[in-house]
Design brief:
The protein is of the alpha+beta class. It contains three helices and five strands, in the order E-H-H-E-E-E-E-H. A five-stranded mixed β-sheet has the order 1-5-4-3-2.
Protein backbone atom coordinates (compact mmCIF):
# COMPACT_ATOMS: atom_id res chain seq x y z
CA UNK A 1 0.00 0.00 0.00
CA UNK A 2 1.36 3.40 -0.99
CA UNK A 3 0.40 6.51 0.98
CA UNK A 4 0.37 10.14 -0.03
CA UNK A 5 -0.79 13.47 1.36
CA UNK A 6 -0.50 17.20 0.96
CA UNK A 7 2.44 18.43 3.04
CA UNK A 8 0.76 21.76 3.83
CA UNK A 9 -2.31 19.90 5.08
CA UNK A 10 -0.02 17.61 7.13
CA UNK A 11 1.59 20.65 8.81
CA UNK A 12 -1.85 22.15 9.56
CA UNK A 13 -3.08 18.81 10.92
CA UNK A 14 0.00 18.45 13.18
CA UNK A 15 -0.54 21.94 14.57
CA UNK A 16 -4.30 21.51 15.05
CA UNK A 17 -4.45 17.89 16.30
CA UNK A 18 -0.87 16.99 17.27
CA UNK A 19 -0.97 14.02 14.87
CA UNK A 20 1.19 13.73 11.76
CA UNK A 21 0.09 11.88 8.65
CA UNK A 22 3.25 9.80 9.02
CA UNK A 23 1.79 8.52 12.30
CA UNK A 24 -1.70 8.21 10.81
CA UNK A 25 -0.63 5.59 8.26
CA UNK A 26 0.02 3.25 11.19
CA UNK A 27 -3.75 2.68 11.57
CA UNK A 28 -3.50 0.54 8.43
CA UNK A 29 -1.19 -1.85 10.31
CA UNK A 30 -3.96 -2.49 12.84
CA UNK A 31 -5.73 -5.66 11.71
CA UNK A 32 -8.63 -4.80 14.05
CA UNK A 33 -9.23 -1.33 12.60
CA UNK A 34 -12.78 -0.23 11.80
CA UNK A 35 -13.38 1.18 8.31
CA UNK A 36 -16.60 2.89 7.22
CA UNK A 37 -17.64 4.75 4.11
CA UNK A 38 -18.05 8.46 4.92
CA UNK A 39 -21.36 9.10 3.18
CA UNK A 40 -21.55 12.68 4.43
CA UNK A 41 -18.28 13.80 2.81
CA UNK A 42 -17.98 11.43 -0.15
CA UNK A 43 -18.84 12.63 -3.65
CA UNK A 44 -19.28 10.90 -6.99
CA UNK A 45 -15.67 11.84 -7.75
CA UNK A 46 -14.15 10.93 -4.37
CA UNK A 47 -15.17 8.21 -1.92
CA UNK A 48 -13.91 8.92 1.59
CA UNK A 49 -13.29 6.28 4.23
CA UNK A 50 -13.24 6.84 8.00
CA UNK A 51 -10.80 4.56 9.80
CA UNK A 52 -10.57 4.04 13.55
CA UNK A 53 -7.45 2.17 14.57
CA UNK A 54 -4.88 1.77 17.29
CA UNK A 55 -1.35 3.00 16.64
CA UNK A 56 0.01 2.22 20.12
CA UNK A 57 -1.20 0.70 23.37
CA UNK A 58 -2.54 4.07 24.50
CA UNK A 59 -3.52 5.82 21.25
CA UNK A 60 -6.51 5.23 18.98
CA UNK A 61 -6.80 7.49 15.93
CA UNK A 62 -9.61 8.56 13.63
CA UNK A 63 -8.28 8.93 10.09
CA UNK A 64 -10.01 10.06 6.91
CA UNK A 65 -8.56 8.73 3.66
CA UNK A 66 -9.42 8.22 0.02
CA UNK A 67 -8.07 6.31 -2.95
CA UNK A 68 -6.22 8.44 -5.51
CA UNK A 69 -4.92 6.66 -8.57
CA UNK A 70 -4.24 3.50 -6.56
CA UNK A 71 -2.59 5.33 -3.65
CA UNK A 72 -4.15 5.85 -0.22
CA UNK A 73 -4.35 9.60 0.34
CA UNK A 74 -4.58 10.76 3.96
CA UNK A 75 -6.97 13.70 4.33
CA UNK A 76 -7.02 14.18 8.11
CA UNK A 77 -6.08 12.48 11.36
CA UNK A 78 -6.81 13.07 15.02
CA UNK A 79 -7.19 11.24 18.30
CA UNK A 80 -10.41 9.25 18.34
CA UNK A 81 -13.17 10.80 20.41
CA UNK A 82 -14.64 8.80 23.29
CA UNK A 83 -17.58 7.41 21.27
CA UNK A 84 -15.26 6.49 18.38
CA UNK A 85 -12.89 4.71 20.73
CA UNK A 86 -15.83 2.84 22.24
CA UNK A 87 -16.90 1.83 18.73
CA UNK A 88 -13.36 0.56 18.08
CA UNK A 89 -13.35 -1.66 21.18
CA UNK A 90 -16.95 -2.83 20.69
CA UNK A 91 -16.84 -6.34 19.21
CA UNK A 92 -13.02 -6.10 19.15
CA UNK A 93 -12.58 -9.83 19.76
CA UNK A 94 -15.10 -10.73 17.05
CA UNK A 95 -13.10 -8.99 14.31
Amino acid sequence: MTFEWDEKKNAINKKKHGISFEMAVRVFLDEKRVEKLDLEHSTLEEERINIIGRVSDMLVLFVVATDRKGNTRIISARRAEKDEEEEYYENYDAR
